[in-house]
Amino acid sequence: MLSAMPVQESSEKQEEPTRGNHGNISFQASAISAFLVLFSFMLVLLGVEYANLYSSHDNLSNYKGSGVVYPPVVLLISGLCMLCMGLGGLTLGITAVLLNVKSKGFTIFVLSLQGVFGIFTLAAMMFGTWAFEAKLYSSNPSVVKFEMMCMLYMIANGTALLSGQFCLTLHFYKQDFKKEPTEAFSNAVLRGLVVFYSFLVLLKGCSEMAIAVLMREASVPVTTAAPFFVSRRDLVLADGVFTMLLGLYGIVVGAAGLFQQKALFVVLHIFSFVFQLALYDLAQYGDFPVGVLSTQLLKFSLKLQGVETACWTAAVLLIPAYFAAMMDDPSVL
């Protein structure tokens, strides 16, 4: 006679994966770390570039600058600040992904570093440089307008990269060292971040449109004045219009709290990134008329500008997509 045998629960029952700082690193933490590594690597590239440019003998011999030269030492320090910020973020992200090692104290230190160095770099490089140039050419209204548009362009890009890395590090900290990691940012904060970074996209687009219009009004076919190396101003105008519309779309999504926009939002911003690289790095930088790039310095600057454009563009377009995706589904990103 068969007797009912009690069914024993398997001791090998698998536990559901957890989030936060329990067990293996979660998908959410991996996404944060991946974006943090990306933004930090871009800062390392830009930091090395500026440190090399402004540590040359010619620049250091006149490190204080003059009435017609912005102090090279300020730009050198800004480059070193970006390098330090990038290395700190890289260390956080890589050790978290590869070693699952996270330190609360070191994370707070990196956050503090990013805050102080980021504010200095934004003030010295994004504001100071172009304000100095505008004052230098104050007798020429057309040049002043051009320099102010350059400043707006760099403020949009620089703020997106510097503050974006800070926000990602803050999210990294809240994800791993707070009791409620999935509520690291409230919905209201996420909507505000989407609006803020979309406004930077709008500002970038408006400055590009203005540059193209100013060049047309002045009958200037090309320019080699950084940060704009323009050989086809119509392409800059087209890129500015598209970027402006993308920024307006992001502002509407964030302000109205429109959900279920993640896929469209991300696809549009990735397309815009590829579109802008095509219109700048590919369609223009290799198509300057013969004789325009008359010196080796200009040719070298053009190559560097291609790297800069890729970094700035990636930062200003990817960070609003990140927060829009998180606003749409906090449990995934």
From TrEMBL:
Domain of life, per lineage: Eukaryota
Spans traversing the lipid bilayer: 29-53, 73-99, 106-132, 152-173, 194-215, 235-256, 263-283, 303-325
Composition bias type Basic and acidic residues, residue spans: 10-19
Region described as Disordered: 1-22
Keywords: Membrane, Transmembrane, Transmembrane helix
Name the record gives this protein: Uncharacterized protein
Organism listed in the record: Guillardia theta (strain CCMP2712) (Cryptophyte)
